[in-house]
Every structure is written in C-alpha cells, then in structure tokens.
C-alpha cells in the first residue's frame, strides 16, 4: 500500500541535528525514497539531488529562510514550514497556502502537511 511520501525525495532544512534526524526517520517511515538534511542555507543550495518536497525551518542560526522558500516556490517545489516561530503572521502572509506546522509538532501532523502540499502542487500542475 502506498504511503504519503512513497518514493519521494525530501529536503529537510533544519539546524537542530536531533530534530533533523527525527524528521528524516519520520519521512523514511512514511515511504520517502531519499531524504537530504541541510543544516544551513549553503548546504541546502548544494544538495545535488533535486527534491520533490521540502520541510523548512523558518530560522537557521538566526538567518531567515524566506528567500530560499521563495526560490522553491518559483521552481514549483512544494514545501511546508516547520518552526517554533508561529507568531509571524505578517511574514507568513507572503506565503499564502503554505502550511506552518508549529514545533513541537506531532509526526502525523507534519507528514500530513507535506502530503497536502504535494497534492496541492499536483492539482496546480494539472490545471
């Protein structure tokens, strides 16, 4: 039976190593074929394998990830924000339709948000 992330390549942009490893395992448990972890924006830009979706922390070492998120948006790569910064409504307003999964989050909530972002992107591509 297919799982929500069956065979997909997922980028995890997270600077907390334990969280990144947990998210990597969560993605693999839900069928991801490949999971790339990047702890900073430089590493994220250097990931050689194109990815099908991304999970992005809002701040990495004090550096916002919004420009990187905009580059994903422009490339048509679905993504979700996973962050402890949930009181930034004015910033998130620049990303209508992009889910914010607040830390601490339940694994099922994160996976469902990623799966929904992928479904939305597929519907948009079909239109």
Automatic annotation (TrEMBL):
The lineage of its organism: Bacteria, Pseudomonadati, Pseudomonadota, Alphaproteobacteria, Hyphomicrobiales. Keywords: Phosphoprotein. InterPro entries: CheY-like_superfamily, Sig_transdc_resp-reg_receiver. The modification 4-aspartylphosphate is found at residue 57. GO terms for biological process: phosphorelay signal transduction system. Residues 9-118 form the Response regulatory domain. The keyword DNA repair does not apply. This is Response regulator. It comes from Aminobacter anthyllidis. The keyword Phosphoprotein applies.
């Amino acid at each position: 039976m297919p799982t929500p992330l069956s065979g997909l390549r997922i980028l995890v942009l997270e600077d907390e190593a334990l969280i990144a490893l947990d998210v990597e395992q969560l993605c693999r448990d839900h069928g991801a074929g490949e999971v790339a972890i990047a702890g900073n924006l430089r590493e994220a830009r250097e990931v050689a394998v194109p990815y099908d979706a991304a999970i992005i922390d809002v701040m990495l070492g004090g550096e916002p990830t919004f420009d990187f998120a905009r580059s994903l948006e422009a490339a048509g790569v679905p993504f979700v924000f996973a962050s402890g910064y949930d009181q930034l409504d004015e910033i998130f307003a620049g990303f209508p339709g992009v889910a914010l999964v607040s830390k601490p989050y339940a694994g099922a909530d994160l996976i469902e948000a990623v799966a929904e972002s992928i479904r939305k992107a597929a519907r948009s591509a079909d239109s």
